[in-house]
Amino acid sequence: MSMDELRGLLNRHARPDMTTPIDGVLVSRVERSEPPETSMSGTVLAVIAQGEKRLALGERVHDYRAGQYLVASVDLPVTGHFVGATRERPALGFGLVLRPEAVAEVLLSAGAGDVPREPGGAAPGLAVSDVSAELLDAVVRLLRLIERPRDRAVLAPLVIKEILWLVASGPQGAAVRQLGLADSGLSHVARAVRWIREHYAQPFRVEEVARLSGMSVSAFHRNFQAVTAMSPIQFQKQIRLQEARLLLATSPGDIAGVGHRVGYDSPSQFSREYRRQFGAPPSQDATLRPFSKSVGALS
Fold it and tell me: Taking every annotated instance into account, which residue ranges of this chain make up the domain HTH araC/xylS-type (predicted)?
């Protein structure tokens, strides 16, 4: 019954921008299957109530469907699409933005023996599991509060903490717990990811980024690959090409200039790598809709 109620709540409260009156809570309704599109995942818990979505991160492919949830613990470049969504049977999803400070608060509230021990190394940045009955019940109770504005301010934070604890202590809890730990392997990789995203157009030496993230070069390579499914250089290339696709929407007549702005000195290399990534040359894509910057794990 809870899954039926969840679908009803998502149908009633879906908006084009996915937002709800509860901060950090998102609702998604997709009525048709589009071609795979590149976006940033965001740091989010995404629960699918109806339909199926496929996400690719590097060479890893994650499928998740009704009754499952995905955890994205680092904001990563992903390519994804909903499978088989129609107006008659739309894909429906719930999202909760994962904030490190909120996860840390939940972990600090738990007893010392109640928090599972951390595995060695960093956990993958994307992971999929089945939704437990307890987690499903908590998500439904949170969405009910959209229709109860008098109770929302008091009860919503409590239910969000419950959801965070259920996920942090569940099968994919390692990724969520590391999000809230300041000195975890994942937090060090997230520091490197932020630096690369902010300086994507400039060349860098892996040794320098490893030092900035507080890891040895060998540990940095190992943990970065575990979290992102890519090497640091591959990650930088993904960010460059995504930014180029956005820039082409505003500067369609300056393909060489866009390539240079995102870090390519060679127009031919830019065109070649762009075509390999998106399946079309920059000249063709300049006239098309750019990739979405929404929460890619959900929308």
Answer: 190-288
User: Do the Cβ atoms of 122 and 189 come closer than 8 Å?
Assistant: yes
In angstroms, the CA 193 to CA 204 distance is 13
Of 153, 175, 197, the last residue of a domain is 175
User: Is 197 a domain residue?
Assistant: no
CB contact at 8 A, 47 and 131: yes
Q: Is residue 142 domain-resident?
A: yes
CB-based contact 90:31 (threshold 8 Å): yes
270 and 126 share one domain: no
pLDDT per position as a tens digit, 226-281:
889 899 999 999 999 989 988 887 777 889 999 999 999 999 999 999 998 888 88
What are the tokens at 126?
């994307």
DSSP code string of 142-161: HHHGGG-HHHHHHHHHHHHH
CA distance linking residue 142 with residue 126, whole number of Å: 24
**Nearest-angstrom CA–CA distance, 238 and 263:** 12
| 220 backbone φψ class: left, alpha, beta (φ>0; ψ -120 to 50) | alpha
Answer yes or no: is 236 within a domain: no
User: Rounded CA gap, 146 and 88, in Å?
Assistant: 25
How many separate domains does the chain show? 2
